[in-house]
Amino acid sequence: MKASVLLAAAVVSSLFALSASAEEYQGVLQFHSSASRAGVRAQAVVASHSTDPYREGASADVAPALPTLAKRSDTRAEAVAAARAGNIYADGANADLPQAFTSTLDRATAARGATEGTL
After folding, report:
1. Helix, strand, coil shares of the chain as percentages rounded to 5?
2. Which of 33, 53, 78, 103 has the most Cβ atoms closer than 10 angstroms to its Cβ?
3. Cα separation, 89 vs 117, whole angstroms
4. Which residues 6+ apart lie within 8 Å of 98 measured at CB?
């Protein structure tokens, strides 16, 4: 039994040894360039001063400013007037305006309905 286990282990290990193969060493690869050292250096300087095309949001550049027809002084005057008017979006910003609300009930009928729970 011990011999058969050893024989089986030897067969399995020899199969693994035969199937394993290593890559042959080809030596250091030689690189031949047609560009000169000065040309490569000039390209590197240009690339270092240009924008990075791989940065985050590179394709989402800022849109150019649109030309305006309004004068700067007119726009400033409108902004000052709006600031003095207050926040038009605040709660109760329209509180000074009268509400056009009319009721069809008189005050006594409304009070009586509220106490009886009929309204």
Report:
1. 45, 0, 55
2. 78
3. 36
4. none
Rounded CA separation 13/2 (Å) = 17
Distances 6 to 14, 20, 40, 90 between C-alpha atoms, Å:
12, 21, 63, 89
Tokens 């509400």, located at residue: 99
The amino acid sitting at 90 is A
* Contact assessment for residue 119 and residue 113, using Cβ atoms and an 8 Å cutoff: yes
Kindly state the greatest CA–CA separation across the chain.
114
- The pTM of this model reads 0.26
* 118/105 Cα distance (integer angstroms): 13
Query: Cα–Cα distance between 77 and 70 in angstroms, integer?
Result: 11
Give tens-digit pLDDT for 49-88: 988 877 776 667 677 677 878 888 998 998 888 888 777 7
Measure the CA–CA gap between 33 and 43, rounded to whole angstroms.
14
